[in-house]
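Here is one chain, start to finish.
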Amino acid sequence: MTKAPSLTKLQIIRRFQAVLRRFRSEGKLTLGEAYALAVLPEFMGDDGAMFPSHEAMAEKSGACRRTVINALNRAYALGIVKQTPRYVYDPDLGKRVRTSNAYEIVLSVLQEVAA
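Its structure:
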């Protein structure tokens, strides 16, 4: 994720939570989905990268794994989160295998809500 220099991690978290509240009030997210997504920025490193597993998000949010997956799919559809699959080459299998996802919060949506 490319962080805008004008936004700190705390500002990103607060704005992301504001977006979630707005979408929740508009009926675009269920309460469980909003809770599951709310923990995503907490996994953000100093470089803005986020690589949490579904299980880690479920544990941190108190939601089940399926709710986390549904929440992420809804977030992709709403345009507030982008996903990039990550792969590594497995020499035993002789092919690339999927290891995890990289997540990115779409900052332009956060900017629009703040305006």
